[in-house]
Amino acid sequence: MWLLTHLRGVGNWEVPHLRGVMKGVEMIEDDLNYQGIVIRPPSEADSLILQITLGCSDNNCIFCPAYKDKKFQIKNISQIEKEVKKASELYPHTRRIFYADGDAVIIEQEELLRILDMTVENFPELSRIGVYGSIKSLENKSVLQLKKLKQKKLGIIYLGIETGDPEVYGLIRKYGSPEKNIETCIKVKDAGIKLNTTVVLGLGGKQFSVPHAVNTAKVLNQAQPDQVAALTLMIVDGTVIYNIARKGEFIALDKYEMLQELSMLIKNMDNFRCQFFSNHASNYFPIRARFPRDKESILAELDSIIKHKKDNYLTPDQLRGL
């Protein structure tokens, strides 16, 4: 198991949450059978991680370095049951759980219901289960099926919108389309499940920065998720985009161009109610706000930073992470 040292709630690349103690790590590793790097959203920092799938069901995105060491698979149900029971012995008062890895919703409906049932049964104080989702997994789930999952305490789904621009979406080789993302978001909301979405600043490079920002805002306006998390593109060795950039076929934005794109995204968002974050470790400028209440003040602050080149307000490159 990889042990990473990011601060709680900062990055996406994380060790399974160990309640802040390292004592007994070997026992936890053996009994819960964590494999490879385990990733969870920053907002799941206080959740217990149960790794019921390995890797990502798509894993084709050219910018994403995650799960490259894993072939996607669903863990055997008997192994999942063993790990759930052991986790409940270790952390009997757990209130929140996150199902890793990248796309646990893709599990066949009846089996996923069974996993949810055993989780709820073994954690009597459990209030909510969270999970990553995708178009690929959610297109096979009806609103009625999602409602049944919600009844079993699946309370939040994290969905990567990434971009709303059709051309950029095609270039990143992600399954689906901006239109499918809108349909998927509406389906999740219709089921009454909280929806947290991510978008990636800089994903269109210099060439597509404007359409990327404007069209991503258009998708968000139609989807109206409960939360929008803006991450900033980091070009990592080993990814396809790294090789494209080395050839000069992708020109990345500098830090102030990233902020201009962020400002453009926010300006083009309608005044629907949501939480807006850019507090991921990859971001230059951390934002934690409620829209539309804080929208104008955030835009004013961004404009001031961009206009006066306030480097002291920004996270230095050496402190940014995935």
Indicate the topology:
Blueprint (H helix, E strand, L loop, with lengths): L12 E2 L10 H8 L5 E2 L8 E4 L1 E2 L18 E2 L2 H14 L5 E5 L8 H14 L5 E6 L1 H4 L4 H9 L2 E9 L3 H7 L5 H13 L3 E8 L7 H15 L3 E6 L7 H7 L8 H13 L6 E4 L10 E4 L3 H14 L14
Parallel strand pairs: 3-6, 6-7, 7-8, 8-9, 9-10, 10-11
Antiparallel strand pairs: 1-2, 4-5, 11-12
Helix pairs in contact: 2-3, 7-8, 8-10, 10-11
Tell me about this structure.
With 322 residues, this protein is an alpha/beta fold. The chain is 37% helix and 17% strand. Strands 3-6-7-8-9-10-11-12 form an eight-stranded mixed beta sheet. α2 (77-90) packs parallel to α3 (109-122). The protein is globular. The two termini are 18 Å apart.
Name a few traits of the molecule.
322 residues; disordered N terminus; 11 helices; eight-stranded mixed β-sheet; alpha/beta; 37% helix; two-stranded antiparallel sheet
Task: Give a short overview.
The protein has helices at about 25-30, 75-90, 110-120, 135-140, 145-150, 165-170, 180-190, 210-225, 240-245, 255-265, 295-310; strands at about 15, 40, 50, 55, 75, 95-100, 130-135, 155-160, 195-200, 225-230, 275, 290. The protein is an alpha/beta fold.
